[in-house]
Write a structure and sequence with these properties.
Elements: H1 3-15, E1 18-19, E2 27-28, H2 31-83, H3 88-157
Antiparallel strand pairs: 1-2
Helix pairs in contact: 1-2, 1-3, 2-3
Length: about 160
């Protein structure tokens, strides 16, 4: 079960909790259920972290593939340039064409790398923001549960 679903369960448990009269919104909750949900969250959080690590690995692989493709394009252009054999004007023209192809292919490779880096960075940023939001929401829910539990403890001791 995902951390988000567990937080939803915790929220539902809080919504269905019994309100204590004259306590400004304090509620009574089944502490075992809350502890079980929190334990499940602790167990599932590493899965989300592994997912983020997989995204980082995917980024590395995409960058490596892009570099490999760019290198292949450059090698192919260099090979084409080497295969062009001629004299004087034909040789000069061939060199100009090869240089233009190399520059074009290099520019395409650089542009491809920029695009991939931007996409991966955006993907990682959105993942980071989602994880931060989930952790912040979890902290808030935990504080609410602690406050509820303290209120119940205070009420019970009085």
């Amino acid at each position: 079960m995902s951390v988000e679903n567990l937080v939803d369960q915790l929220d539902e448990l809080l919504e269905n909790a019994i309100s204590l009269p004259l306590t400004s919104g304090k509620v009574v909750m089944d502490s075992e259920k809350v502890r079980r949900i929190l334990e499940d969250i602790r167990l599932n959080l590493p899965k989300d972290i592994r997912s983020a690590a997989m995204i980082v690995n995917d980024r590395t692989q995409i960058l490596a593939d892009a570099k490999k493709e760019a290198d292949g394009i450059i090698r192919q252009a260099e090979e084409r340039a080497r295969l062009m054999v001629s004299r004087d004007e034909i040789t000069r023209q061939a060199r100009e064409q090869a240089d233009a192809m190399l520059a074009k292919n290099h520019a395409q490779g650089v542009e491809y790398m920029k695009t991939v880096k931007g996409y991966v960075d955006d993907l990682m940023q959105r993942t980071e923001e989602a994880l931060v939001a989930s952790v912040n929401e979890l902290r808030q829910k935990r504080q609410n549960v602690k406050a509820s539990q303290q209120s119940v403890d205070t009420t019970i001791s009085n």
